[in-house]
Automatic annotation (TrEMBL), chain A:
Chain segments annotated as transmembrane: none
Family recorded in the similarity comment: Belongs to the SKP1 family.
Organism from which the protein derives: Ogataea polymorpha
Name of this protein: Elongin-C
Keyword terms of this UniProt record: Nucleus
GO CC terms of this entry: Cul3-RING ubiquitin ligase complex; elongin complex; nucleotide-excision repair factor 4 complex
TrEMBL record, chain B:
Pfam families listed in its UniProt record: zf_Tbcl_Rhp7 (PF23550)
Signal peptide range: none
Organism of derivation: Ogataea polymorpha
Domain DNA repair protein rhp7 treble clef: 110-145
Name assigned to this protein: DNA repair protein rhp7 treble clef domain-containing protein
A Gene Ontology biological process term: SCF-dependent proteasomal ubiquitin-dependent protein catabolic process
GO cellular component, one term: SCF ubiquitin ligase complex
Region of interest called Disordered, as start-end residue ranges on this chain: 1-28, 44-78
Biased composition (Acidic residues): 57-78
Amino acid sequence: MTEEVSPYVTLISNDGFQFQISRDAAMVSGTLKGMLNTSFQESSTNTIRLHELDAVLLEKVCEYLYYNLKYKESVDVPEFDIPTEMALELLVAADFLDV
Amino acid sequence: MSRRRARQNGGQEEYQVQGPSSALTSFLREQGISAEAIRQRYEAGLRRQQEQASSGEEVENGELEESDEEILEGEDIPEDVKLMRERARIKRRRARRDRELDDEEDEGKNFCIECDREFVISVYSKRMEKYGRIGYLCPECTSNEIKRQRMAKRNEIEARKRRKKVAAALLDKQEYRIPSLQDCCINVISKNIDQVDLLGDIGVVNMKKISRILSKNRSLDNRTMSLFLDSSMREIEFWDCSKIDSSAFDKIPAYCPNVERLVLNMCGRLHKDNLKYYGEKFTNLKYLYLNGAFLINDQAWQDFFDSPVGKNLKGIHIKNTHRFSPDSLISLLDNCGNNLEELTLSRLDGLTSKNVYDLLPHYLRKLKHLEISYPNKEELIDDELLINLLGVNGETLESLVLDGCTGLTDQFLISGVKPFCPALTKLSLVLLDQITDVGVKELFTDWDMNGGLMEVSLARCIELGDESVYALLEHSCQTLVELNLNSIKNLTRNFFKQIGRHLRFPLLTTLDIGFVRSCDDSALAMLSRVAPKLSVLEVYGNNRCTPAAIVRDNLKIIGRQSDRLDVGLQNESDELAVRLQLVQTACSEEMLAELVQQLVDARRGQLTIVFDMIDDVGEVSGVFLDKLKLEEKRPERNRAPNKLCFKMCK
């Protein structure tokens, strides 16, 4: 376990798009954190396949992960923009990812 | 000019006659210019002219223009004239030096007070006080300073916003956190709920959240309500039914026949026909909570309890309706009284018959939760009724709420609760003003049968004192999770001391100790120490609780007056302004002094204190001067009656 951990992880949507995000950002999500901190395959390859999410949703999720990372400490945060039509799907995804 | 003229005059003979001296004469004399010396000089000049007549003429003009030292350089002149000239020279030199010094120090033209660089002063140069001096800044430093102040202002605004949000979150007993993605989504959905046709598989928890937000926004109506109706739902709760009409209420059993627990809050539009329909359709209903169902009359209640659904009920919670009559209660008891595990009768002003209340012990057998609160008259609920009830149900009873039953006395505690309630974990006795220190102490002393209470509210039991509350805590300190001691005004400092020395609260998480005036900073520190899990501590009305209390970081103290203080940099003059938005009575002198002391420690410089709501600052100012060794400074301009200006003399 002492081997060098990459500072980036790759998230793959169900339609094959890959998103490389920093490990810190991924750790915002309880589910992803759980996957990366255990001895599952995901933690060794630093790659997580998210079969439930398509690219559009996953992009929004990544956006939120960075948003959370950036504004965690501050108070006067801009509102996170969510397109109305995406809200319900995103809620399901957020529920799954625990963010 | 004048000198030259004087010289010319001096050349004339009749000037020697002394007369009253003019202002010019006295001025000349002061300057060390005497007519005699001038005459001699003139004669000498004439002599020289004659000597030089052969050599050249040109010296004359220059001689007249130049100062006298130069004219007579290297010349043989009388001793007294020399002396006089020497004195004049010293005087002139001194005057010149003074003028130069004035330039440097008073107008600060030359050197920047910050970087000590020479510069040309302009209207844009910033004047400021620094390092104990007053001066101007060079253009570069000025722009830096303006930038710095702008940043400080922005930071201050940011900080103020932050404090505001944190304070708002504090009042909701939450910590301020960045909203989760789920919350963001739920907000968007709630805002656009009109466009949602189907919520889909978002999970029961999220569904409940959306439903609650809609209730809170008062936007739960017929259409939005139907989004939450799903045949798989076991529990349904609508906390604001005021926009749901009668036909929509019928949809609930039609879509969700399997519901076991139904909560309808503010259901003023629930019609008797709805209740009748519920009585036929909700075949699995076990628990029913209806708050404010005032359209349901006596007959409708009776019919409902008489229906198959009514007979099946295990829990009934009815609040806030005057139409629930004694007959309705009899019907309730007749039909499902024997099975009831939960019963709430709160604020039912139609229940005015003592005889009907007295029937309760004859039907109820295995209650786990009993709430009888705020009865119509205090004599309806008396000790005997409670003792009988507890005698039958005490074995299973876990939760007992008797808020506002002011007719109860010590008797029911000693003869009812103490001998019959081994399983009790929640006890709420809000507003019972007849229970006394002795009775409550008697209850909790050696109450070995009960393993300990988890939730206790003794708010506004104003007759209680140190001994009874200490007995309670001694009995239940290991199990207590929530404790409310609001307004038990007789508690003293000694009480807190005793707790700190002898008791530990491993599970206590919330404590309300508001309006217990003896609670001070040291009590807070003690509570923080003896209750490691304590996360919310309410201290409203305790004006001895200040920000100076030393408590754990993760303990939220709510209701300190100081939390409302708005402290921060006010304007560019680098002064610290303190706005005390306090009512006069609540603002004790010690508190103010302590607050200011902290500010003084944090910052040096000038301190302005604005008392927004204090009429007479003269009184408090003395305290500051004494305690802080501050030197009062009241500027003449901008003098406001509620503003004090202090200069720190550290």
